[in-house]
């Protein structure tokens, strides 16, 4: 039976969800969630099976590292909910890892500055700009909704993003478009970044943990717009 407590990394911000299990500073296993199932169906069975294979119990969880977005609204809610539940059951610490930081780690050091951009529709991107330093990639802008010209103002040498961002948006200047495979966040990177955050004391109270949406879900935006156009008498009923 294991003597150390385990730590778990959850990545559900994209369709290609994944989970990683570690003990202390050792990464034990990583696995991709079944593509044919939704994260709500696949995540907990995958976690249970992975933990059981290594002889752990749910109470043995020391820390949960969760990718908090931007990304899929539904996927983020699922990952955050599981992280909250595990933390409350086991007393585990939580590290909320920005998804754009996770994706930036896929980019090699060939460029001094890159922009990580995910499709936000309406010609906009969920964007973070990163500068290469001796310690790796450092985010120099907060996650924000930007158009390609606004991204270009930060003078990135390259952009990494999903197929829509790379292939359909009009990027000004000489910005290099990197391969779309680099835009897939991986749980083993969430695990590594989460471990570093934990060591720095950068943890989040489970009751305060929430997804990083940058923008409201589309359904909520539509609801608010409809409420704003309705007469006050109808809103009150």
DSSP E strands, number: 11
Secondary structural class: alpha/beta
Largest sheet: 6 strands, mixed
Helix-strand string: EEEHEHEHEEEEHEHEHHH
What Rg, in angstroms, do the CA atoms define? 19 Å
In whole angstroms, the N-to-C terminal distance is 60 Å
Q: How much is the average pLDDT? A: 89
Number of domains: 2
CATH topology name of the largest domain, in short, is Nucleotidyltransferase, domain 5
The second-level CATH architecture of the largest domain is 2-Layer Sandwich
Let me know the CATH homologous superfamily of the largest domain.
Answer: ATPase, nucleotide binding domain
Percent range for β-strand residues? 25-35%
Task: Enumerate how many helices there are, as a single number.
Answer: 8
Q: What's the helical proportion of residues? A: 25-40%
Question: Mind sketching the topology for me?
Answer:
Blueprint: E1 6-11, E2 18-23, E3 26-32, H1 39-53, E4 61-67, H2 73-90, E5 93-97, H3 99-104, E6 113-119, E7 125-133, E8 136-139, E9 144-146, H4 148-152, E10 158-161, H5 163-168, E11 176-177, H6 187-199, H7 218-229, H8 232-236
Parallel strand pairs: 1-4, 4-5, 6-10, 10-11
Antiparallel strand pairs: 1-2, 2-3, 6-7, 7-8, 7-9
